[in-house]
Structure formats: structure tokens, C-alpha cells
Amino acid sequence: PEVHSQLTYIAKSYDLLRNGSVALTSVASSEYAGYPLSNAIVSTTYTDEFSSNSEGAAMKVTITFGLPVAISRITFRQRMMSNNSSLLRKVLVTFGNQSKEFTLVNQEDPGISPAYKDYHESQGNTYITWGLQVPNEWLFESPVPIHTVLKIEGLEIMAPNMDTFRNTGFTDIQVYGIKV
Q: How far is residue 30 CA from its own chain's centroid?
């Protein structure tokens, strides 16, 4: 199916997940059928998503690079479902000896959400009434760590008492850096 140009992007040459400069393996603590982790780390289309299998805050993503890499920035958009379900409030990102707990910005991206909703409506997915989340970003402090293992772990979901499915995940993860 044709995807609106607002819902695709050309990967940056320094996106370690997509530029082919270093081999990597990726593991999610679970995957909902049809929503594998590769959708968030290989695809350059925001209509592809990774979803955990109802893990909520227990969701974990581990990316292991085949060689040491220096990472300067991580950007990700989390997935959502209706009524703000399946949204994380906090995550922990760890790379080398640097860890940071994030309180995520949880709001629809007004620039591309209309195209996202239109795409799903054109595919007959009328149950998808939500848009895309704004990106969240972490810039690593100097000195930039050099390591091989990156972890993103859920810590807290947005609406624990209202979230039936808890299918937390991401539509996109980008890791900017170089192999060392």
C-alpha cells in the first residue's frame, strides 16, 4: 500500500541501526504477533510498529553491536493505542556506564498524525483513531561512551488502572553514532 511521504524518512548516514556499518542483534523481552522489533529499528516507515506482548512497564529492548560504537544520540517514538493506552510514562536507557531515566513527552505529533490517521483509514483500519507520538531524544554527555550493548527498559506506564492491553512499544528507534 502507498504510504504518505510524511510517514517515511531517509535514514541518516550515522544511524547505526540502518546504515550497515556494524553488525547488530536485537532482542525484545516479547513481541506481539505481527509487530516485531525490526519494525522499529530497520523500517523507515512510521506505519510499522514494534509492540510488546502486553508487558507494559516490563518491556525491554536490548541492542548488541558487533563492534564497539560511540553513540551521541538516541531518538525514539513510542507507539500508542486508543485512550492513551500502551504508553510508557518513564523509561531507562543504558549504554556503557551511562544510564538515564526519562519521563517521556506523551502527546500526538500534530505534524504527521493526520497523515497517519488518513493512511489507516485508507487501509480500512477504522479502529485506529490515534496518531503518532512526538519523538523523545537523549543526547549523551561528553565523553561519549563507547560500548556494545544498548538497553531501553520500561519503568512506568501512563494509565496503569485503565490500560487493559499494555502493548507498549515503539514506532521508531534511531541510534546516532559511529563504530570505533
A: 14
CA 44, chain centre distance (Å): 12
In the block, cell 516507515 appears at 45
Please name the residue that has the C-alpha cell 526519562. Answer: 102
pLDDT at 7: 95
CA 106 vs CA 38, 78, 157, 158, 164: distances in Å: 23, 9, 11, 9, 18
Say if CB 52 and CB 169 are below 8 A apart: yes
Complete DSSP assignment for 63-97: EEEEEEEEEEEEEEEE---GGGTT-EEEEEEEETT
Q: Tell me the CA distances in angstroms from 26 to 53, 63, 116, 117, one per residue in order.
A: 16, 4, 26, 29
> Max alpha carbon distance in the chain (Å)?
49
Helix/strand/coil for 118: helix
d(CA 22, CA 169): 24
Give the mean pLDDT per block of 10 residues along the chain (180 residues).
87 96 97 97 95 95 97 92 85 91 93 92 88 92 88 92 85 96
